[in-house]
Amino acid sequence: MPALRVDERFVDALAAALADRVARRLEAVRGKGAGLLGTDAAARYLGTTRRRIHELTSARLLRPDGRDGRRPLYRRESLDRYAEAGGGGDAR
Length: 92
What we know:
The structure is a single chain. By secondary structure, this protein is mostly helical. The chain has a domain of 46 residues. It is built from four helices and two strands; from the N terminus they run αααββα. The chain has a two-stranded antiparallel sheet. Helix 2 crosses helix 3.
């Protein structure tokens, strides 16, 4: 298999072009809101357990952004705010 030899300027230009494309795709996904997350998905997003999400919601440290019947739903932005605020003073 022949080797492809490129200089550093080519690699930098390629990396910049790919970074722009990836950034646009991520922005498109975020722009669509990517929907609300259920408890399991919210737990995965925060790297915790479903039980912990229920505890935080019951303690009103994490508030659902909507509901599907009785099922709480969360936006990623709300989960980010909770985490960025240090978990509402919660060390876990």
